[in-house]
Amino acid sequence: MRQQIVFWCLCVMMFPVWAADGKDVFLSKSGEDFSTYESRARLFLSAHKEWINPQNSANELAAVMPFELRPDPQQCGTASTIGVLLSHGLSDSPFSVRDAALALQKACYQVRVILLPGHGTRSADLLQVNEEDWRTAFRDAADTFQKEVDVFYVGGFSTGGALAAEYAWHHPDAVSGVLLFSPLFKINSGIDWLSPLLSYFKDWLDNYPTDDFAKYASIPVPAIASAYRLAKEARNTLQDNPQPIPVFMALSEDDQTVDASVSESVFHEAMISPKSQMLLYSRLQGNANTDRVRIYNTNWPEQRILGLSHMSIHGDPNNPYYGANGSYRICGWYLDEPVKYQACRSDTNNWFGEKSAALSEKSDHAGRISWNPLFESLMKQVSNFIQATAYLE
């Protein structure tokens, strides 16, 4: 009897591994050129995406597609090519880094944005993948892209930032610098370490249908566990081996998704290049500058903004979907409170920021900000950072 109990316990623990066999998700292929990768993605997403509005399927598909942007030859000339590979974060899509990619293209850089496995279709597809699939996708894209350009940068948002930093630390000779927006080096939770254990027994803590065609509303527990492991392993990789690879990091001190204090520690301890820069947005600290750190105060009552959120750091205020006057408002805090959810979506005089008691005092249905009023300044500093670290001959 004891042997039978042990056997069934092992079966329960191994179920997520068995369930991953034969997964039907979009995966990268080593050595594949980017145009073929895009074509495969288009076919897969067209067949598998859960449409929010089938009448708007063309725009919804475009939002989640991987893409490449090339600099305008008339504006930029035929100088050496600087390539930037970007990745989105967990539950997001390539749309989440489109504003940054467009700004980099305008600054004369060639940009590629990948689609992480399990994304762009339906949230349940995250049950079929793990951090190794995301690593493989980033590595395949980076290994191919860095051979096609003269100077190569990697970057990403949130989980994508962890992937980019980890890749750079493993390939310091191939990477000239790293661009990080709200990077994930630790989930902002004191019990995030429980997620791998919980993932053996529970797929979802909540599972809301999304009304946002560029992002999932809910994340399954196994995907959270994968993000936890990736963040921990990337953090350890960097802190155990500080390197002089130039890094540009932008993050919000008020971030409720990632632990910004841990990201700051990683910057100071592991990112030791004198050319590395950190932009810290804070609703409590005043503006300040040091050699490697700039702090911007984000208490802007005249704009009804109190702090920047995890996703807003690299968001253009002019984005027609997520921008200041965009058609979509991030109100997921109220998915289990329909009245507040609708008020958040419709209040034209609402407040925006990152979740906090101070923000709730401003409005009991405040929205999560999805744009950065200082976006133009941010991207100018990113471009200056690349120019200062590219070492073109």
From TrEMBL:
This is Alpha/beta fold hydrolase. SUPFAM superfamilies: alpha/beta-Hydrolases. Residues 1-19 form the signal peptide. Keywords: Hydrolase, Signal. InterPro entries: AB_hydrolase_fold, Hydrolase_4. One of its GO terms (molecular function) is hydrolase activity. The keyword Hydrolase applies. It holds the Pfam family Hydrolase_4. It comes from Marinomonas arenicola. Residues 84-205 form the Serine aminopeptidase S33 domain.
